[in-house]
Amino acid sequence: MKKILTLIILTAALSAAAQSPRQLMEQGNDAYANSNFAEAARLYNAVLKSGYQSADLYYNLGNTYYRLDEYGLSILNYERALRLKPNFRDARQNLDLVNSKTEDEIAPLPELFIVHWAHSLVAWLSPAGWRALLLCLAALLGGIIVFFVLSSQYRSRKIALIGILVASVLLLLTLACAIASSVQYNRHDQAIVTSPMAVVKSSPEDKSIDKLILHEGTKVQIEETLGEWHKIQIADGNTGWMQQTDITTI
Asked: How far apart are CA 157 and CA 154, in angstroms?
């Protein structure tokens, strides 16, 4: 009897292990559709543990944690979805919605228009999208140069020269956006407070002065790490030290 029970358990375990990320994703979607949000979260996390990740997966997980009233984890996953797909409109809208429900109301420091415009431009495409556009522009520039060299008419060469100048400017701008997008994608110095409440200290020790109280869902910038402590900065410029267990890196 014990051998049979062991065989059944082993078979079930092997069957679960054999499930593909796509199957787990579909099961998670079914669980979500049936309002079984805890099971949906478990299945989506199982997909992540298998090594697969996508903007849609993080978006679904963000929706699931929102339904479970876990706003910190919901915001974390929307942010991760936007890191993979910066122009993901649904994720952006849901992120704004959940942020409006968090306890901390932090007024961000004013940002110059040109800086805001640059950030918006970089977020227009994913790193892969910027690379693809860069290759297309490089091919276009090469074609115009060939046309310029082979053309014998003055008017055609003049138009080609203008095309070379315009394509070169666009190529350089796209290259800058591709680099900035790649840096943004690979950065790991932003985090979300995932503890219900976290104390920000004046120095990296428990006995230091309490500077701030932050609640789950607040986004912080990690400036320095010392052991189990992170020096963080919030949107209004205030800084302090938080324990590593209170935040999760995006």
From this structure: 5
Q: Which long-range contacts (CB under 8 A, 24 or more apart) does 199-206 make?
A: 199/242, 200/232, 200/238, 200/240, 200/241, 200/242, 201/229, 201/240, 201/241, 201/242, 202/240, 202/241, 203/241, 204/229, 204/231, 204/241, 205/229
DSSP H helices, the chain, are: 2-17, 21-33, 37-49, 55-67, 71-84, 89-99, 113-122, 127-150, 154-186
**9 pLDDT tier (thresholds 50, 70, 90):** very low
Residue 28 CA to residue 8 CA, distance in Å, equals 24
Q: Where are the alpha helices (DSSP H) in 34-70?
A: 37-49, 55-67
Class of the domain covering 190-249:
mainly beta
Q: Which of 227, 218, 221, 216 is nearest to 240 (CA)?
A: 221
**Per residue in 96-143, pLDDT tens?**
999 999 988 888 877 778 888 888 888 888 899 999 999 999 999 999
Q: What sign has the CA pseudo-torsion 148, 153, 159, 165?
A: positive
Domain 2-99 carries which CATH code?
1.25.40.10
